[in-house]
Structures are given as C-alpha cells and as structure tokens.
Amino acid sequence: MSGGRLVPLGEAPRDRELGPARGAIVIAADFDAPLPADVLAAFEDAHPS
User: What's the distance, Cα to Cα, between the start and end of the chain in Å?
Assistant: First the structure.
C-alpha cells in the first residue's frame, strides 16, 4: 500500500477501572480440561465455509 501516512491517534485513552464485572463472571476450575470426544470430533470435522 503506497501513499499512506502516519497520523496521531488523538487523545490517549482514559485509564480503565479494574473490576467492574467482579462477581459477574465465573470461570470453572476445570475450564481447561480436555473436551469430550464428541465435541472435539465436531471441531475436527468442521470445514470453513
């Protein structure tokens, strides 16, 4: 791509407040456990359209 130029992004983003969703999101202790065989097969058999 030619003819591009660098321009300032503008005002810096504000600092974000940490924790506004605290208590609203729960991640199970086994969130990274292996998938059941049928679910894994569904992903492996999927073809992009």
Answer: 29
